[in-house]
Amino acid sequence: KEFEVEISGTMVTIKCPLDDSKIDWELTGVKQASKEKKYILENHDSSPTNVTCSSVSGKYTMYLNARVCANCEELDALAVTGIIIADLLITFGVLILVYYFSKDRKGRASTGTGSRPRGQKMQRPPPVPNPDYEPIRKGQREVYAGLESRGF
């Protein structure tokens, strides 16, 4: 058997798993006046608490670490599902709009480029290589005749 805990705002309701009519409640070592099967913590401050309910037939202990707040709104599963689905629909709608608007611009050339074809820019030819570093070709050995190896 387990404790049943209900949280609403700052009120925490704890139901003891014992079936006796007189139940002694103890919170963090302090005995409480209530003898009911349900114990209600009004204005709980979210501090961790050890809860014990006992009677002649047994004793149950629980560590309660319930976070509560006064201004919280409770959402059911249907509301959360609706919010998520609406967010996804809006996101996909924006994606589709961006896709269709960008698809139309692919085929059109922009007005600032003029009538030049898009591709490699052929404004000037590549630079001529430096003749000092020109590779030796067949029939041009006389240029490099003065570069014979010297014996040391």
Automatic annotation (TrEMBL):
Single GO biological process annotation from the record: cell surface receptor signaling pathway
Subcellular localization(s) per the UniProt record: Cell membrane
Single GO MF annotation: transmembrane signaling receptor activity
Keyword field: Cell membrane, Immunity, Immunoglobulin domain, Membrane, Receptor, Signal, Transmembrane, Transmembrane helix
Pfam families: Ig_5 (PF16681)
Gene3D superfamilies (UniProt xref): Immunoglobulins (2.60.40.10)
InterPro entries associated with the record: CD3_esu/gsu/dsu (IPR015484), Ig-like_fold (IPR013783), Phos_immunorcpt_sig_ITAM (IPR003110)
Main location class: membrane
Coiled coil: none
Transmembrane segments: 77-101
The keyword Transmembrane is assigned to this record: yes
PANTHER family documented for this protein: T-CELL SURFACE GLYCOPROTEIN CD3 EPSILON CHAIN, T-CELL SURFACE GLYCOPROTEIN CD3 GAMMA CHAIN / DELTA CHAIN
Protein name, per record: T-cell surface glycoprotein CD3 epsilon chain
Protein species of origin: Pandion haliaetus
Name of encoding gene: Cd3e
